[in-house]
Amino acid sequence: MLKYLLLLVGFVLLIKGADVFVEGSASVAKLLKVPSLIIGLTIVSMGTSAPEAAVSITASVDNSSAIAVSNVVGSNVFNILVVVGACALIKPVLVDNALIKRDIPICIAVTLATLLLGLDCTLGRINGIILLAMFVGFMALMIITGIRSKESNQEEDYKVMPAWKSVLFIIVGIATVIFGGDLVVDNACLIAESFGISETIIGLTIISIGTSLPELVTSIVATKRGQTDIALGNAIGSCIFNMIFILGMASSIHPISFGFDTIIDISVALAVAVLAFLFTFKSKSISRFEGILFLLGYAGYMVYINLR
Known about the structure:
The protein is an all-alpha fold.
């Protein structure tokens, strides 16, 4: 019973730690006169992926490669099929042109690149460096596009705290995320052992769903407020960060090895990204019916990974 409680505590620490880190980092950036637009595109975007990053990097260091990869892949499948599917069920999701022409194709490209790099069932340090280079390129593209965009005037105002408090928030946030990541990985492994199931399945289900809860909540709230374009943008952006930043960091620190089943899972992540593109290309929206198909697809995937 204790390991389940500690797993839950770990998830809470991951989510709250990420929030505190973002708040402190955004405050420091504002003190340094960094535009709010750039803060949103970099610090806040990376902060929302902090739970997945903490879990996968911790798992990589602890030589739990299966969790390191399956957490990212499972989160990506969950983001598109469940996050977007649930939002479409509430209200049809309208899709911005930039998502169709740029972000979804980028998501497909980085997932395909990861699949090709991992065809030998390993992601070594060189592979990690390649993924991180793609991440740097993606961030540069986002910043340049954001600065040029007419929407740059619609900036979110981030709270400014005293310098000492901002730094304290950053330190506490990072420490909380790291500690939460340790709790999640350690207790997820214990749960896997107690049930005699693989770390891969734990990573694809419990861990990936738990670390993706912030994206789910954010997208549902945005949808209820009528900001349906944010729902898909949040999910796709998270998928891109997960694939190139988190796997890039994890494999650069420690080479990751995995089984052929993971190749299939990455292929599933690629397929759902392509599906999102096909659904949005003509209609520029995702209907309630398509949202139901997404959710049914995820249910089918859960059945598949538990039966294999």
